[in-house]
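User: Just a sanity check before I run the rest of the batch. Below are the structure tokens for the first item. I only need the designed sequence back.
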């Protein structure tokens, strides 16, 4: 229903058809409908896909309008992220949630903490998507419930309710797009299709897939990455698009990730049908050694290249090695090919957060695909302080500035905190997202694992104080006092978990017979 009033009219019409619905209040039923705007995960996927398409078009017109997200490993984390965004900025616009396969592996697997190597149960991914949207929908219901309490109080007092009704009808939902990591697809293209469907049905509107071998997948910031030929990756892009179309999510977004910059291996040699085709380009990157047929070993794999007989460099594990310094050329070909075959956004894993380096690759891609734009991982695997201090030092040296006051082998030293170097490096970090979006085609900035680190840090700080000299003061001053003074809703944890919402439902269902939790003796009234 589009508005509270139209929902009331709808319930009134239905009640007229049924003579024994006298206990159902039109206003209460309409209220519950408005508080539960999204009935299914597919409703969410269609709604959020349209948001992403709108944001992408706005970015194409103005590169200052980039989008952002933080990675969430639990529905509550995602919910509190959106609460904070709305509290401090009044809207959830241009803000998404990132679902990281790394955090699923490390924090949500039934096998326990795992490395990011596609070892976790793949069903955990759609389950987490559903969990996140359950918490975001509950956030909508809770805030709207508070508005309806205001509305009822205003009506009882005979006050004008126009402003409150406008807040309800123009409510900015906490439900935002999720970019969901499907790793390398968890198997063949049929497996990718089936898992994609489950993820979309849970609410995902954007699927991120990488061009690594499924059964040898590594974290993008680890060694030992093995890429697949383009034909294999295209099959999985097709599988994802078919899943979106089958489920009616026509605006679904595919993020194609290339790990080629850091990968030096491939598992198989594709079949080239004619010179210069896609398979041929891929094979040309493989490192080879020229040999005479007499020197060939039994069961050797041999290729003909430029009229000569060559043997691909092969490791003891059977993997083939790419020629050195072909990584950027492979990245460009990966990205162009992905865009030519149905991908909407690109993801390039880089070794450091360097705008000029990203721009160099994106400019080459845009020569063939001007619409190219990136999802970029502002990764916790980067040492952000060290990288920007190094970049500043390099820039100063290029400008001829004296940098002898700084030990380039110890730039992380706290001795440099508060110095000119520190100020310049921190300014570069602060402006990195703006600069990368303006100069290097980054549409979406995300931090993959931020809440993994913030959880560890906050628990560490609390434990250090609580089990030490501060005792309960560590919690009172370090947590609760800050919550109260910042106006963080979670300080009233009973209400945050749905107690007030449940009380109002009980009253709707049972009237004066309702046994409610929010009475005078509820200790939450202290806040």
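Assistant: Here's the designed sequence for the first item:
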């Amino acid at each position: 229903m589009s508005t509270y009033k139209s929902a009331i009219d709808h319930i009134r019409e239905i009640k007229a058809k049924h003579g024994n619905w006298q206990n159902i209040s039109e206003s209460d039923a309409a209220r519950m409908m408005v508080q539960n705007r999204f009935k299914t995960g597919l409703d969410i996927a269609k709604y959020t896909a349209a948001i992403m398409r709108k944001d992408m078009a706005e970015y194409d017109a103005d590169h200052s309008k980039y989008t952002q997200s933080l990675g969430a490993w639990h529905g509550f984390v995602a919910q509190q992220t959106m609460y904070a965004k709305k509290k401090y900025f009044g809207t959830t616009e241009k803000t998404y949630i990132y679902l990281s396969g790394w955090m699923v592996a490390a924090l949500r697997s039934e096998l326990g903490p795992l490395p990011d190597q596609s070892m976790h149960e793949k069903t955990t991914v759609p389950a987490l998507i559903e969990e996140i949207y359950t918490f975001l929908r509950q956030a909508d219901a809770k805030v709207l419930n508070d508005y309806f309490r205001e509305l009822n109080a205003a009506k009882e007092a005979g006050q004008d309710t126009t402003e409150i009704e406008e807040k309800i009808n123009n409510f900015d939902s906490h439900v935002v797009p999720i970019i969901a990591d499907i790793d390398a697809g968890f198997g063949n293209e049929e497996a990718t299709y089936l898992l994609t469907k489950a993820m979309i049905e849970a609410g995902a509107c954007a699927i991120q897939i990488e061009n690594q071998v499924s059964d040898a997948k590594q974290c993008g910031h680890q060694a030992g990455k093995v890429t697949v030929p383009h034909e294999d990756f295209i099959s999985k892009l097709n599988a994802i698009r078919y899943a979106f179309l089958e489920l009616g999510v026509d605006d679904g977004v595919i993020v194609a990730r290339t790990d080629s910059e850091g990968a030096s291996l491939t598992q198989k040699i594709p079949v080239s049908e004619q010179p210069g085709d896609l398979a041929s380009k891929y094979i040309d990157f493989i490192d080879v050694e020229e040999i005479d047929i007499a020197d060939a070993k039994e069961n050797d794999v041999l290729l003909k290249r430029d009229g000569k007989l060559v043997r691909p460099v092969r490791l003891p594990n059977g993997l083939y090695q790419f020629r050195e310094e072909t990584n950027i050329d492979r990245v460009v070909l990966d990205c162009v090919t992905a865009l030519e075959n149905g991908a909407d956004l690109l993801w390039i894993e880089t070794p450091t957060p360097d705008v000029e380096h990203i721009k160099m690759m994106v400019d080459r891609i845009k020569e063939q695909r001007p619409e190219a734009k990136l999802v970029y991982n502002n990764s916790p695997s980067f040492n952000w302080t060290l990288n920007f201090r190094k970049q500043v030092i390099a820039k100063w040296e290029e400008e001829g500035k004296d940098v002898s006051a700084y030990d380039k082998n110890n730039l992380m030293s706290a001795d440099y905190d508060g110095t000119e170097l520190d100020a310049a490096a921190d300014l570069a970090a602060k402006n990195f997202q703006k600069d990368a979006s303006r100069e290097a085609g980054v549409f979406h900035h995300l931090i993959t694992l931020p809440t993994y680190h913030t959880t560890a840090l906050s628990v560490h700080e609390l434990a250090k104080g609580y089990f030490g000299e501060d005792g309960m003061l560590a919690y009172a001053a370090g947590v609760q006092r800050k919550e109260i003074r910042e106006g963080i809703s979670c300080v009233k944890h009973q209400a945050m978990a749905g107690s007030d919402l449940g009380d109002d439902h009980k009253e709707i269902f049972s009237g004066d017979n309702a046994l409610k939790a929010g009475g005078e003796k509820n200790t939450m009234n202290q806040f």
